[in-house]
Amino acid sequence: MSIVKLRLLGLSSRTWTRSNSSSHKRVLWSTFRIRQFSTEQEVFEDFGEYSVILPEEPFVFGVSHIKPRTVPAHVKKPPYALPGGEQAFGIPKQNSGKIPLGGVEESLLAQAGSLAKKVRQFAGTQVKVLDRSVQRPTKSILRFSAFVLHKVESLPATISLQLIPLSINNIAVHGIPDDRKLENGDIINIDVTIYLNGYHGDTSETFLVGDVDEPGKELVQVTNEALSRAIGICGPGRPFKDIGRTIHEYLLDKDYSVSSTFTGHGIGKVFHDNPAILHHLNDEPGVMEPGHCFTIEPVIIQGRNPKVWIFPDGWTASTENCARSAQAEHMVLITNDGIKVLTR
């Protein structure tokens, strides 16, 4: 992916430098600042120094040009990956999103969550081996992780592309792995979704690549803390809206915003199930009950603009003003007397 036409985003292009790589430009946010205006004064925000990711030109629309990875015939596929099964990808309207506790269903769901955690951790090790003299293309992280999944006869739940989304810097979610090499100072979110023995696992984490500047480190720390606090209020009888309220209150005195575009979801045999989990302040009805399993996955963005825009590929979502974002995600199972975090 490359950096092009910064003026389309409403940014001033008077200050930027080109990196040694011809595939993208490196924006120095310490001198290249987003301008925001108020009636009283001009406000400048400094989000740090990092590379901004924008789509390559000429634009290619859709993902038909991306060759899906092959899946061994003996690996069990989800219903939505079978011929004519695309409709099965949505949320069943009448499904409660709950599973029976204490039996085989809970065990299989826990196994899927545990595998997702292990793949997330393994993918993270591929980021951490990077140093300033060895750069790793994001495709290689995908290849290693897919190998692990196939060895245990499972597969990414994002079956249409057979990939694990990798989102760098200003990419909020659903970044598609490509030939771009990770750079010193990047932050990268690895979003692992797996399908194992009829159940789904879903988890993500944002990793630091080399020497990340202080604003980048703080963003990742704030994101992890927001997720931790949201998990901490979960339990039987608690309103789902408390998740959004907790994250909102945590960010009140900080220069960050939470995306309202992307939500958590129930998970189990169905990939995206009830209930819907909103991370922003909301007044949605519903309470947590034993057997509910859902993801909490806030996308935290630098500054007070939580809007995103979608690349021509129809998947990759960037922050509107190219501020950095980070995401962290866990699966939470509500039990009779508390919770289990299946991916921690």
UniProtKB/TrEMBL annotation:
- Asked if the Swiss-Prot or TrEMBL record annotates the protein with the keyword Metal-binding, the reply is yes
Described by its record, this protein's role is as follows: Cotranslationally removes the N-terminal methionine from nascent proteins. The N-terminal methionine is often cleaved when the second residue in the primary sequence is small and uncharged (Met-Ala-, Cys, Gly, Pro, Ser, Thr, or Val).
Any Gene Ontology biological process? proteolysis
Q: Where are the transmembrane segments?
A: none
Q: This chain belongs to which protein, by name?
A: Methionine aminopeptidase
Under the heading Pfam families, the entry gives: Peptidase_M24 (PF00557)
Q: Does the keyword Transferase apply?
A: no
Q: SUPFAM superfamilies under this entry? A: Creatinase/aminopeptidase
What UniProt keywords apply to this chain's record, in alphabetical order? Answer: Aminopeptidase, Hydrolase, Metal-binding, Protease
EC number from the UniProt entry = 3.4.11.18
Q: What family is this?
A: Belongs to the peptidase M24A family.
Give residue ranges for domain Peptidase M24.
164-336
Q: Which organism is it from?
A: Agrocybe chaxingu
Q: Which cofactor does it need?
A: Co(2+); Zn(2+); Mn(2+); Fe(2+)
